[in-house]
Amino acid sequence: MRQATQFLYIYFLKPILFLFPADSVHTFFLHTGHILGKYSIFKKILKSLWAYADKSLEQNICGLDFKNPIGLSAGFDYDGDLVEILPSIGFGFNTVGTLTYEPYNGNPAPMLERLPKSRALLVNKGFKNNGVKSVLSSFSENQSMAPRGVSIGSTNKPYTDFQEMLHDIEKGFREAENFDNFDYYELNISCPNLLNLQNLKEQLASPTGLRQALEILAGLNLKRPVFIKMPLERTEGEINEMLDVASEYYFISGLIFSNLAKDRTNTAFDQNEIQNAGKGNFSGKPVTEKSNAMLHYVYKTFGKRFILVGVGGVFTAEDAYKKIRLGATLVQMITGMVFMGPQQIGIINKELAELLKRDGYKNISEAIGTLN
């Protein structure tokens, strides 16, 4: 059924969906998923059709049980509409947000565009969300077998100074600590689509800015593990400086590589598409090469200090497997699902299990970092 759905999606449904604005299609699927997630019958049907389970894919990470390593990245389900349905279509974990202390309606439309030849999405939401308290109040405790995360960042507004922005992030985490319906945090320090980046000399994605943020979070005694969403287009030296800082804070469990691509000279782009692309930055294949290089470097340099999560250009099991063999314990995706269809999560997991068996691994944890 997964292969049949894939054929129908790619050759029939996707051509129709791509006739409509990406923002409208995204909103439609958020609403549809929210409704379907309310009914156990729909969840059971989707699970039987698409999800795939195998013992070789299971891991315990930070005390959380992951049935498989494929997760939905932050940036798709920004208000938690899909938290009930995502495990049923095969995701091993999922992240809500990025959430901010104050609500934000999003940057001017269009916030999404498709670049089919480049296998990319242009993204310009700027942390569109209803605010931490409103979103976390809207869904129940996590009863699924899939860990649920919450990404938190700074509200997309001008700040008078860097300390004001740090205080806003602190308030977001403090508010989130009042809820027990999620399992881990992501700290988004690197979204390139924010207004506040234009008004401050100091940045979160710098050694001094990151240290100030982590000092504040250290004082909150957070009760869940924290993963940092890292920037893409930085040198090894710049990443090294930030991770030297992050490694000092025990509550930082892991790193996510990486956020959106900004460089429009990236060779992954089709030249006609990139010349006509609007305002924003890019997910999908333009992220792959640099993200993979950072996974390789950080795993080799910092060893097992950090749990690494690979994101960017995951369309197939081979894409996910490469990130794992470069050092990723978990893998996230969005663009691959948009281009290939929701059944692709189950296909990736099934083929991952086959790749592990082919290479003689009994569990996916044995494959982590084997290309280093």
Write a brief caption for the model.
The protein is of the alpha/beta class and 372 residues long. Helix content is 38%, strand content 16%. The strands form three sheets. Strands 3-4-7-8-9-10-12-13 form an eight-stranded parallel barrel, surrounded by four helices. It has a three-stranded antiparallel β-sheet with strand order 5-6-11. The chain has a two-stranded antiparallel ribbon with strand order 1-2.
Label this structure with key terms.
single chain; 372 residues; alpha/beta; eight-stranded parallel beta barrel; three-stranded antiparallel beta sheet
Q: What features would you describe in this structure?
A:
- With 372 residues, the chain is of the alpha/beta class.
- It has helices spanning 2-17, 22-36, 40-50, 132-136, 162-176, 207-218, 236-246, 271-276, 285-302, 317-326, 335-340, 344-358; strands spanning 59-61, 64-66, 70-72, 93-99, 112-115, 120-123, 148-152, 184-188, 226-229, 252-257, 281-284, 307-311, 328-333.
- An eight-stranded parallel beta barrel has the order 3-4-7-8-9-10-12-13, surrounded by four helices. It has a three-stranded antiparallel beta sheet with strand order 5-6-11.
- α10 links the parallel β12 and β13.
- The longest helix has 18 residues, at 285-302.
- It is globular, with a radius of gyration of 19 Å.
- The two termini are 36 Å apart.
